[in-house]
Amino acid sequence: MTEPIYKGRVVTKSVPKKDALSLAMGKPMYTDDKDFRNLVHVKMLYSPHAHAMIEEIDTHEAEKLPGVLGVLTYKSSSQVLHTSAGQGFPEPSPYDTRLFNKKVKYVGDRVVAVAAETVKIAEAALKLIKVKYEILEPIFDHDQALGNDIVIHDEEDSKYIIPVFYDPKKNHASHIDAEVGDLDKGFVEADFIIEKTVRNHYGQHCPLEPHISIAYIDNYDRLVVRTATQVPFHARRILAQILEIPLAQIRVIKPRIGGGFGTKQEIITEPIVASFAWKLKRPVKYEFTRKEEFISARTRHPMTTWFKAGVKKDGTITAMDMKVTSNTGAYGSHALTVLSNTGSKTLPLYHCENLRFVGDTVYTNLPVGGAYRGYGGTQAALAMEIVMDDLARKIGMDPAEFRLMNHIKPGETSPIFKALGEGTEGVEQTMDSVGLTECINQGAEAINWWNREEIKKENSTDTVKRGFGLVCVMQGSSIPYIDMAAGYCKMNEDGTFNLLVGATDIGTGSDTILAQIFAEGLSIDASDVIVLSSDTDTTPFDKGAYASSTTYLTGQACVNLAMKIKEQLFEYTATVLNVPKDELKIEAKAVIHQKSGKQMTFAEIGTKSFYSDHQTQIGAVASELSKKSPPPFTAHYAEVDVDIETGRVTILKYVAAVDCGTPINPKLVVGQVEGALVNGLCYALSEQYIFNDKGKMMNPSFGNYKIMTSIDLPEIETIIVPTFEPSGPWGAKSIAEVNISGPMPVLSNAIFDATGVRMTEPPYTPDRVLKAIQNHKK
Amino acid sequence: MSQILHVTINGTSKEIAIEPDEILLDILRREGYKGVKRGCKEGTCGTCTILLNDKAVKSCILLAAQTENCSIITIEGIGTRDNPHPIQQAFVDEGVVQCGFCIPGMILSAKNLLDNNPSPTKDEVKMALDGNLCRCTGYSGQIKAVLAAAAVMRGEK
Q1: What is the fold of B86-153?
Q2: Partner-chain contact A258 B101, CB within 8 Å
């Protein structure tokens, strides 16, 4: 049974984002906006070779240059084996890297870091460094990497610290095998079987603020790292590991940050500045250039996804079989977990009892994969939603009707939830909130889906063909039984509250969302809540901004916190007013005893608890461990024109209908939806890494790596379909990631609808589309 | 060899010691105007946008020395917390400030438009914001905000 939607007092309202005006005024709020005296600057020398052994590094000339303060190489830096993936502990990513490695594994691998008085001097010093390489044969094609004679990680000690498959001698970074039901029986029962192989490409997050960290030593000789991170607590832990200094000696502070999208879930720049600052006892800054962001930060794992599914004439899906080869590049950051999510974030979407998922992640000599909004779901949704469309067409069913019939419904489960976890077995869960039927229906209406054949006929010409596409996508909300988040709060004498959370607002608005969720529990306003977030010295633990978890998980911690405070307010008022606690209630920022007409306002409680009556600090700490991962759902529709003479795809209208449970702040929900889907559109249509035959990315700039601007975008309509998720704060689920995964398949479906040509290898640039059209005619 | 740059920033005359090869963006940030952001340093992202003699330009591809005797407006110069510029207020009201890194530049591009064209069409707003990349949103909110601010600046709201 579906519960009624939640109509909140503070939540479900678009209260202004807490930092919006300050940011719009240009206040100095980001990592680099604070001035440091005697700041040291860092520049990095990168490997020009995709695969090579360093035979000699001569830094003498560089070190003699006036103003150069130090260098780091594999000889002079920490050699602790670790992963740069900022995940919970024990990390489900292989320990396969050191700060600097003797063997470089891609063009962009670090070789020497130089610290100097100025950027100019550091850059000049780089030119004086002589490195002799033994050049090795590289591997670029991930479909050829497994078991290849060329071994990328032939060091002896790479390993996982959890018991999972790992075979670096075969370039094999992870393997997953899960099967439920009877696959053979399923395919035998099918009237039709469709299989497709799709390939997605490299992509970069492109936060407008590149990676940046500043480290300094404070007056207690502790290391303070001010950094643009999504994971301050994991950053602290991994810094302690790499630098081999006590964790208590380190403080990580996240100021405002200029976007993350997953790439700042990596510990990349922090250990460099920390190493220098610890040595030099001076503040040290390392900021990526845009070029470094492309070549040396993290990317979306390119994958080859083979997907086969069987269907009966009545629309029943009888079997689904997915095989994935994921390219993690030179290092295995998120190699295992992105892989498992390709299956776990797609296969549960439709009814099917017979399922198999087989996945392999391989090393290549290309840029490093990592967490990227969508996290595997984006890659697999391409294969899945193309095949779903083809299945529907095969049996003559409308693709919308087919999805309406087959999508997972409230009260149902999928065996995949248990079969695929993140480094461990997954967690069973039953769906409580699924608004997908409404999403499909409302989206169809908004795009005029049911009249599309007429519209196509009226608007198609000999050279420009009109088409419509539809896809459905799901994601999750947190990682069950792994993710934990906490909040701490204290009451002030004016009746306001300080809310301290480890949660990491990376521009998403989570500071505001969490204030709303907390305020809702105490019937106060979001403006009565002063939020401080992401400082490992002053805020409680939170796993950080990833896995679509902050609203759902930290949000629930904030509900728990509000309930604890409510209890304390009742206890305090009962004692002071001498009335029974269980007869009290909260109304208009006061605790009221209706029978006697007595009451205490929050301000009175705050003041008296500090200064006069039964003095105590009203405050609490609360946390939440995730116990399930309720998926948000979305239906995406696109109406496109395809020019068959030029291959140009023009999007005329795009509709996203989303179920995120209770929309805590509708305007911020729309921001997340549109931001994600526009990122997905750019990835589907124009973004791509162009490599030369030596594995070097040739277009590391915004001029040559095209992300859309205001003039490139179609009309986008976002429809929020509220549902109520009982396990979430005031009924909320996540929204941040799910919408990035729609554009790639929906445009393939729309192009197919327009032209009969099936695109399986994005980006759908005019040259690729034209080539596909020409091949189709042959 | 350093030289003295004479320039007016947000209405205040300044004399700033610069090197001949220094970029305007770096000078502005060094002088404390941190609202001028560095996102690409190649003239494409637009986060370093300022108004130079009332024209929106990218400060990362200008030498500071080129601005001798010029007037510069940065985001810090157009509104206060108590009296924000209508564009700043509209961006807040529309809820379109996500990470915020692109916002100062985008607001100044919008101001450049509205100062010259008080009643722009939606397409004209899109053209004006074309040089400012945003990765968090889909631009539609910012476009709406600029149109709303235009109405306020025309005295209609």
Answers
A1: DNA polymerase; domain 1 (1.10.150)
A2: yes
